[in-house]
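Let's practice the habit of predicting before peeking. Look at the sequence and jot down your guess about where helices and strands might fall. Then scroll down.
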Amino acid sequence: MILKVCLVTPAPPGSRKGNRVTALRWARILRGLGRRVVVRQEYVGERCDLLVALHALRSYPSLQRYRSVHPDAPVVLALTGTDLYGAIHTQARARRALELATRLVVLQPLGVAELPEPVRDKARVIYQSVPSPRVTPAPRSDSFDVCVLEHLRPVKDPFRTALAARRLPAAARLRVLQVGAALSKTMAKQAGQEAAVNPRYRWLGEVPRWQALRVLARCRLLVLTSKLEGGANVVSEALAASVPVVSSHIAGSVGLLGADYPGYFPVGDTEALAQLLERAERDVDFYRTLHAWCTRLRPLVDPEGERRRWASLLAELV
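Done guessing? Here is the structure:
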């Protein structure tokens, strides 16, 4: 019987990074399923019945240490975008982490195909859930606000939306509201410079999650410009809030939104993104199509679904 779970995430306490947000949500779910849960940055040898680790490469020392102490106990490894589309193809330690795990968690179905074939049968898909907001605020009527909700680091291509907004016609009412911490001085400087020269762009910096979700809920679109994602939590947040998504054409988004979703643009293609944003503002039917599509997907991110998948996974491990 699994009574105590040690949940390991490389993101430190107080961090607003996605790994920490996911870890804390999973801890709440597992506690709701009757387990005692401790959240750590690394496993240091304490007794527990199950190790759940986020990030194959960065949590590899914890997996190895846990296996040396508990060789027969179950291990669940959750794979991030940098694992699936990077480390497991280039780093021996990340591949070894796949072998050490009893089960592998991916956040959208296309993630399974990235795994080496011998370990694919270990994989389980657990969609990230978000409670639907109790009140949905009305968007501003004097502007067409779009939200970029991500920390500023190169893999997120964080200024692509601002650059696309520069190419819009003068009559466009679009504003870019960017929420997220700059993870380097270079990124902070670039955000400040962009805001100074681009009247369509505002950088709001790092804010509490409830405030970020409020900004999102008042926007007409979420724009995801990442070069890779395992299955972005911000897409789940947008679906829960019934905010349509415009995304770079990456597997992490296609696995959530579907192959035929009309709101994709090629990674790094500023002109294609500008055209998509202009169309979303100008073409009412196109915007309604995006909105209806994302509304249909809202049940995918229902918290009860994520709870059921974790309950099923625990039952397998017993």
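How did you do? Residues 15 and 307 are 24 Å apart (CA to CA).
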